[in-house]
Structure prediction request, 308 residues.
Amino acid sequence: MNPAGPRSPIPEANRLSKLLNISRGTERFPVDVEELARGYAQQFGHNDPIAEVIGADLPGFEGALYGTNKNGKREWALLYNSAIGTPGRIRFTMAHELGHYILHRQNGNTFECSEADLLQWESIEKRQEAEADVFASYLLMPIDDFRRSIGTDSVDLNILDGCAKRYGVSLTAAILKWLEFTEQRAVLVMSTEGYMLWARSSQSALRSGAYFRTRNAPIPIPNDSLAASDISATREMQGSELSARIWFPQEPQDMSLREFKIVSDRYERTMSLLILPKAEPRWMLEPEDKGNGLLDEYIRTGHFSRNK
Prediction:
C-alpha cells in the first residue's frame, strides 16, 4: 500500500514520535534513524521498503535517496555522505532522506541533497527540501520534549548544546529548532570571511524588526561585534553583553543584547546567536510585505521571496 496523496511533514514526524514514545519511552533519544528507516515500510504496510542505508562517497551531496526496481519489486536506498564525519549532521541527513521517502517518493525516483539545498528553499524541488528538513527537525527534536529539556527561560549556548547532545544533532540544528518556539527575541547568524551567509530570527525578533535580508545583498558582520573579534572559546560560549545597536541600529540607545559565538575551523564559518530583551512589535517589514504571507514565509525559511 503506497501513499495515496500528499503528506505534511509535521504530522508525519509527530506520528512516528508518538509510536516511539509508546514503544521506547520518552527517554529514547537520540532517535535511531537507520532502524526506523529500515522498518518503516513493514510497520505501515508499504510494499516499497528502504532496503539499504549506506554511508558512501557522495562528493557535493549531504545525502541521497534512490529508487530501483528489483525482480518486479520497488526498493529504495538511503545514502549519506560518510565523509561528513559529524554524527549530528549524519543523523539529520538520514532523517532528511527518510522525510523524502515518506513525503515525496510518489513524485520521483531520485533525491540528491546538497548543503545548499537544505538552506535555500524556492521552487518545487527546494520546497521538497524544506519539507524534508522540517520532518527531520520534528522527528529528531519534538518540540514538547525540547521545551521540557530546556526547563528555563534563561537560555544560553551551554543549555542549547546540552539539547544538541540529547538529540544527537548539531548545535546549529538545535538552535534553529529553539528559534521555532521560543518567545525570546533571538537571531542566529551564520557568516564567513566577514559576511553573513544566512540568518534566522525567532518570531518575536522578526516582529520587532530584528532580522536580516541576507538574499538581497552581502551584509557585513559589524566591526564591533563578538563575531568580528578573537575572544576565547570559553567566553564565546558564555556570551558577551554589548550594545544592541551594533547589530540592530533601530534598537534603543540604552538597550544591550547578549552575543554568543562558535567558530568552526573545519567549515570556515562563524555562528553567532544574538539574544535581545523583550520589545513591543515594531513591524519593520515594508508596507507591501504586511498581510500577504511574506512574514510566515520568512519565519519558515529565513528568506523573503521578493528581492528589494
